[in-house]
Write a structure and sequence with these properties.
Layout (H helix, E strand, L loop, with lengths): L1 E2 L3 H11 L8 E2 L11 E3 L4 H5 L6 H11 L6 H24 L4 E3 L15 E4 L5 H4 L1
Parallel strand pairs: 1-2
Antiparallel strand pairs: 3-5, 4-5
Length: 133
């Protein structure tokens, strides 16, 4: 059973459903699925590679740890840095099959306190869009 029909819950449900002989139930407190934010941040994916976007994982890890006052679990930070691209490529396969276009957002903050790194994948439109308007 998966609780929550947000991005993480639905991704988990699809992944679980891809496993042989697995039954999946998703429980959601609202009337339908939820897609807040409109995108997913990752370090690299086939789309970022195609666009020539390169992020330095070590630099990002150092910045992340500093912003968190070294209180973050660094193993989890590195898990994200090393696996987010693979997860996004899996998601892009699903989006491509549904003809759901994806773009990389270009409005990154680069200020005195911190900076954002390119890799925010935004999905535009899709087969459900007319029902939502």
């Amino acid at each position: 059973m998966i609780v929550g029909a947000g991005l993480a819950g639905l991704s988990s449900a699809v992944s679980a459903a891809e496993q042989k002989d697995t039954k999946v139930v998703v429980v959601e407190k609202t009337a339908s699925w939820v897609g807040r934010g409109g995108g997913i941040g990752v370090i690299e994916s086939r789309l970022t590679r195609k666009l020539g976007i390169k992020n330095d994982k070590e630099e990002i890890a150092r910045e992340w740890m500093a912003l968190c006052g070294n209180r973050a679990n660094e193993k989890l930070v590195w898990l994200f840095l090393n696996k987010s691209g693979e997860a996004m490529d899996w998601f892009l396969d699903k989006a491509d099959a549904m003809k759901l276009p994806c773009v990389i957002w270009g409005g990154y903050y680069n200020g005195a306190t911190y900076r954002e790194h390119p890799g925010y994948h935004m999905f535009m439109g899709g087969p459900q869009l007319p029902a939502l308007q």
